Amino acid sequence: MTLNATVSQKSPLPGRGIAERLACAVVQPVLSRVVRRIASRHSSLFARLGPHQSTDFLIDPIELPFALHLRPDPQDLVLRAVPRDAAPRAGATIRGRFMLLLELIDSEEDGDAAFFSRDLEVSGDTEAVVRLRNALDDVDGSIAEETAAMFGRPGRAILSRLRRSYIPS
Amino acid sequence: MSLAELICPAGTPAALRTAVDAGADAVYCGFQDATNARNFPGLNFTPAELAEAVAYAHARGTKVLLALNTYPPAGKVDLWRQAADTGARLGVDAFIVADMGVADYIARTHPGTRLHLSVQAAASSPEAIRYYCAHFGVKRVVLPRILTIPEIRQIRKEIPCEIETFIFGNHGLMVEGRCSLTNYLTGQSTNMDGVCSPASDVEYKRHEDGSMSSQLAGFTIDCFGADEKAGYPTICKGRYTAPHRPEGYYAFEEPISLNLSKLLPELIDAGVHAFKIEGRQRSKSYVRGVVTAFRKAVDDIRAGRPADMADLVALTEGQKQTQGAFETKKWR
After folding, report:
1. Which residue in B157, B155, B133 sits closest to B146, CA to CA?
2. Do B17 and A140 touch (CB under 8 A)?
3. B154: left (phi > 0), else alpha (psi -120 to 50), else beta?
4. A159, part of any domain
5. Distance in angstroms (rounded) separating the CA atoms of residues A24 and B250
6. How big is the CA angle at A82 (ends A81 and A86), to the nearest 5 degrees?
7. Is A150 contained in some domain?
8. Which of A88, A90, B188, B292 is least enclosed by beta carbons within 10 angstroms?
């Protein structure tokens, strides 16, 4: 399935704005905890970001009811869920299926290949995207598994189930 | 039979460890500056990272080759000399060089270190290769991707050094080390700054109909239909209109990757000593997948078995692959 096909299947639903804001409120405490943990365990990745530590990235998992706003500034780290209609002006945007984005973070999938296949879409400051990709790619281990482990057995079970259901294009 | 060493790319320390663990005989990498031809944002090694990488690789019997394969601007050689001195101090196993001045400096200053001639030198004739061997002590040449296997076999008979050929990744048909297409649009040099289509000048735009255009320094170099596979935003792989081709066409080359997995036995028989996988700019996932596949294939061949090769097309540019000139000069 291409990104375009996936996007075209989506249609506005009544009350969607309220549902999106509710979803953001539910996940926000988790996101804050996750990003602080990753930053403390993998502080070396900030060096590869260079001047783009202060860039606002919009990470848009197309099937989720919200997007993610990331500003990887070690002095003022931001990772928050935002409704798409209230997303901040981003320096760079990265769009794709949620599990693809997760696999890219963990280097289980290749970003260039996902771009060639059109499953991954980037816009805005390409250098910022390339720096973020290279910074994450230099992380040893699995950020997804570290995140899941923060929530114990239920977290690991959810990740395992998500991975089993993921079929690369 | 040649050694058929597997030479693998590493853009980051984690990618280097991945390549080593996947079975690379040697890994090639570069510093975070203009001394190498993959001077991309967020990529490459600090000297401290390279020191750790050399220790990791050597502890596992893997060599580390340092790419110093760009050309210093006239009179500005210090960066390249410092990089060579640092590499020698850290114990890299060879330098991959293109510029004669850099080769001469290393040959004189670090005479015990191997020199490999980069594909960026575009040395494709026995005469050219012998010149580098005679004057700088080059021990291996990385051949341009424009030669057939019979031509490689003939060159091997006429040169005193080892041969390395690309087997996977960028097709690279331009006259390497001479291409100035990026300079025209961005003012930066592939050959002196180490950046082909610098990311800071690249922009992708999605259109209402689902198509996507790629631009370099404000110039549109391709537009991919909604269901069309994409390629890198390089001018050589752009699609252009002309009065006689209003529909748009690939004026130089197509987005397609080299894959010589089926030609490995013939390349070994022709006297190729080492197989190079392109892609320092790619992810650990790419490194793991491609190195693992070719490690198995080379081991199969060396053991006299038919190579059982994984399908790598999903990792290729434009999701298309070719054997290019290695199969026939009429490949296009």
Report:
1. B155
2. yes
3. alpha
4. no
5. 45
6. 170
7. no
8. A88
A contact set with B (CB within 8 A): 2, 4, 8, 48-50, 104, 107-113, 115-118, 121-127, 129-135, 137-140, 168
Substitution target from A93, A104, A134 for chain B, most B beta carbons within 10 A: A134
Euclidean distance between CA atoms B20 and B142, whole angstroms? 21
The string of DSSP codes covering A126-148 is HHHHHHHHHHHHT--S-HHHHHH
Residue A94's domain is classified under what CATH number? 3.30.1050.10
Domains of chain B: 5-173+256-327 (3.20.20.70), 185-250 (no CATH)
**CA neighbor of B33 nearest in space, from B92, B87, B74:** B87
Q: Tell whether A152 is covered by a domain.
A: no
Which residue shows structure tokens 């984005």?
A101
Candidates A1, A44, A102, A116, partner chain B, best to mutate (most B CBs within 10 A): A116
Q: Which two tokens stand for residue A34?
A: 């996750």
**pLDDT string in tens for chain B (332-residue length):** 467 999 999 999 999 999 999 999 999 999 999 999 999 999 999 999 999 999 999 999 999 999 999 999 999 999 999 999 999 999 999 999 999 999 999 999 999 999 999 999 999 999 999 999 999 999 999 999 999 999 999 999 999 999 999 999 998 877 888 999 999 999 999 999 999 999 999 999 999 999 999 999 999 999 999 999 998 999 999 999 999 999 899 999 889 999 999 999 999 999 999 999 999 999 999 999 999 999 999 999 989 998 888 889 889 988 899 999 999 887 76
Which segments of B23-125 does DSSP mark as H helices, in order? Answer: 47-59, 78-90, 100-109
Would residue B305 be called left, alpha or beta, if left means φ above 0 and alpha means ψ between -120 and 50 degrees? beta
Structural domain of residue A39, as residue ranges? Answer: 16-141
In a domain, A8, yes or no: no
* ipTM at complex level: 0.94
Contacts of B315 (CB under 8 A, 6+ apart): A110, A112, A113, B257, B282, B286, B289, B290
